[in-house]
């Protein structure tokens, strides 16, 4: 395995870019291997490392189709549904809780809150 060329912070030659820089230019790595490495020294820890890709081998970003937009919307909607009460929480459910805050902390809910009532109860 050949070693990668390593450049110091802000001293990489033209023709290389990070993933974020490629994306800002409307490009993607397109399956190419990492071409070089950028290192930013730090005082008490190891250096920060950024991987560089060749700009001339980068490919344009694939456009979002209507099917991709629909799949993304469906995935984002699923992240808002509480698995405990099966309601739309109105925000993305935090993975640390695994459920909406009303289900995770039922004692903190105000009395008579509609989002705290069970789905089968009728008022």
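^ structure tokens above, recovered residues below v
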């Amino acid at each position: 395995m050949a070693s990668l060329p390593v450049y110091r912070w802000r001293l990489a030659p033209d023709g290389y870019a990070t993933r974020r820089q490629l994306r800002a230019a409307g490009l993607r790595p397109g399956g190419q291997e990492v071409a070089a490495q950028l290192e930013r020294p730090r005082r008490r820890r190891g250096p920060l490392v950024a991987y560089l890709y060749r700009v001339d081998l980068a490919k344009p970003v694939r456009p979002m189709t209507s099917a991709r937009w629909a799949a993304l919307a469906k995935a984002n909607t699923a992240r808002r549904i509480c698995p405990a009460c099966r309601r739309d929480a109105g925000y993305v459910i935090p993975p640390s809780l695994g459920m909406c805050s009303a289900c995770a902390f039922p004692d903190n809910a105000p009395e008579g809150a509609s989002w705290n009532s069970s789905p089968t109860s009728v008022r």
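The two ends are 69 Å apart (CA to CA).
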